[in-house]
């Protein structure tokens, strides 16, 4: 390749992967051992289809939450659902969820966090009082904004809620605070289109229940009793589907297709695409420090 | 592209200077070249790339080539400066974006670089470091202008995260039509070949070097009543400072006569200070802070054992410098490090506190039992390994080979970009290459090559400096004078 080298004893000399010795090979010599330390996919994970389907239920749940929220809002807006009923149902399910929340892990989580029931009651009371007090303001806050803008904004906020929600992935985009804030903002927007300030108050309370409290209970259910979690997810999905069906058949079918593709097709593709994975490793990789070094400082 | 070789300066003339060590490898006829080194990193910035460029240039000048360096302006240091032996450095007024690397638009540097390449009658562009945007810009423009290109890669990259996927794609684009690539170790070559999807035949391995006369042992500077472990590195995560913070308390508790000297500065210094505070080791662990390059030797000779905890390293000059000072080296087995020193001079460990402590204990045991080589012996072995003259000789061969190659004409270059870099990136960069060419045509129309003054050569076969100073040799000091363009 380079100038014709006077290779005299190449036959006997064996190439070594060392730099400190002058070897009878040109500098661009490529040995048979070139890239012999290359490893592929050593840390690649093997996925099981049903395990992935089970994990995808988090996404399904969140889609259903958004769907249920919008359906309830629509019923309120049309005057088909009295606010008292929603408040009563919400209160009852919240109490039920509260009891369940402690019952599932037999109060271990509570012991660990050291939070008292009195503190829970206090924050619930503070929240309800403030929302109730401010509900007339919430009602009139965005009155001057056109209804179309409100709808568009709500759609974007709910989409943002779905995008930034903490599904358990360790990614930079995940931000549960931002996600929750976007959902609450959407609920405030939508609440302002409801007939009275009582409606607005109950809508925002419901948003907190379904977007803040319900995922916490879900997470605990998933960790402690996976079986019942699957049941709850199916039940929730069917109720969301039913609710949507009572409003629009086409919407309900599209929603069902979306859920099926997320929970069945996407895992299938994930596993198929694993075959094309080519993760390259070799001696050039940055070493990882595997031990816990903080013990030297504590 | 047409009138590039009209000046007569690129004509092959036999090297007149005597060769340092002819050896078996240098049988082909040597031409002198007009070489332009381009990198964002150069003096006054300090580091491995900077000293590599400087030393290589000096040795190439010694071998009769004309060498200039192009970098970006560092604060007040702008315009043209001359260094030792008439090495001309252009400090271009380009904006620095991040980490001393210039911002790139791919086009804004063309007018300046073209002007320099023409007035200096450059025949080979040699870019350094994949972190330097200016180096890639220069490669891109040089190919548009039909000048031969060489690239030296000084670092290793992973393949896992998004940022490395992007930089590797850019490297593929930048290197797919570069004539030759130089890597500093075999591991680095494997890495670069994979990252840029290259033909391994056009990648040469030429290691870095150290000046053995700068790193001589001095056994009287160290106290033999205690054992001193020296660490010289930037205190950052990639250099394994976290491992060091585990090793210090572990070994200091075990050996009462063990001291640490740590030279270097960085964000991880705080954890070393915390460890020192926590274990009350103020008299045994000395943190020296940032060291100037000339002080490194004086720190090294105070120790018995040199510890390197890097997590990734393409070549690792530090361990060669330490070995040249006669220290026993203990290092992590990462990147190109196993290739650098023979087994009897280095103890290789896994990158964990446990393994490194075992390695250090082995070194301490050998030291106490007197089975270690004496510093003078180690120095004498190491000083033959890596010299800049050898590096220059081997680099020169790359230049010879490259200068005989044809630069891809525009149509072939576009084909190469499209076929080699993937459908999307390939077309985008082919389009950019066309824009670059159109811009070049416009610049040639604005200021034709013929009216650009030819620069006075300081170095090279007709270098004013070489003729003046050939009888009155005075190297070693940096002679600087400013010159207006």
TrEMBL record, chain A:
Tell me a Gene Ontology molecular-function term this record carries. Answer: glycosyltransferase activity
Q: Name one GO biological process term.
A: GPI anchor biosynthetic process
Q: Please verify whether the record's keywords include Phosphoprotein.
A: no
The protein's matches in Pfam families, at most eight in alphabetical order, are given as: GPI2 (PF06432)
Q: Which InterPro entries match?
A: Plno_GlcNAc_GPI2 (IPR009450)
Where found in the cell? Membrane
The superkingdom listed in its UniProt entry is: Eukaryota
Keyword Nucleotide-binding assigned to the entry: answer is no
Name where it mostly resides. Answer: membrane
- Residues annotated as transmembrane: 49-76, 82-101, 121-138, 150-169, 176-194, 200-217, 229-247, 253-271
Swiss-Prot/TrEMBL keywords:
Glycosyltransferase, GPI-anchor biosynthesis, Membrane, Transferase, Transmembrane, Transmembrane helix
Pathway of action: Glycolipid biosynthesis; glycosylphosphatidylinositol-anchor biosynthesis
Identify one Gene Ontology CC term for this UniProt entry.
Answer: glycosylphosphatidylinositol-N-acetylglucosaminyltransferase (GPI-GnT) complex
**Membrane topology, as annotated:** Multi-pass membrane protein
Family indicated by similarity: Belongs to the PIGC family.
- The name this protein carries in UniProt is Phosphatidylinositol N-acetylglucosaminyltransferase subunit C
UniProtKB/TrEMBL annotation, chain B:
* Keyword Cell membrane included in the entry's annotation: no
**GO terms for CC?**
glycosylphosphatidylinositol-N-acetylglucosaminyltransferase (GPI-GnT) complex
Question: InterPro entries given for it?
Answer: Glyco_trans_1, PIG-A/GPI3, PIGA_GPI_anchor_biosynthesis
| PIGA GPI anchor biosynthesis domain span | 72-161
Q: Which Pfam families match?
A: Glycos_transf_1, PIGA
Q: Does the keyword Repeat apply?
A: no
Q: Where is this region: Disordered?
A: 463-485
Write down the membrane topology. Answer: Single-pass membrane protein
Describe which pathway this protein belongs to, using the record's wording. Answer: Glycolipid biosynthesis; glycosylphosphatidylinositol-anchor biosynthesis
Q: Which residues cross the membrane?
A: 424-443
* Any GO BP annotation: cellular response to leukemia inhibitory factor
Top-level lineage group: Eukaryota
Q: Name one GO molecular function term.
A: phosphatidylinositol N-acetylglucosaminyltransferase activity
Which parts of the sequence belong to the Glycosyl transferase family domain?
226-364
Q: Which family does it belong to?
A: Belongs to the glycosyltransferase group 1 family. Glycosyltransferase 4 subfamily.
Protein purpose: Catalytic subunit of the glycosylphosphatidylinositol-N-acetylglucosaminyltransferase (GPI-GnT) complex that catalyzes the transfer of N-acetylglucosamine from UDP-N-acetylglucosamine to phosphatidylinositol and participates in the first step of GPI biosynthesis.
Protein name, please? Phosphatidylinositol N-acetylglucosaminyltransferase subunit A
Q: Which gene encodes it?
A: PIGA
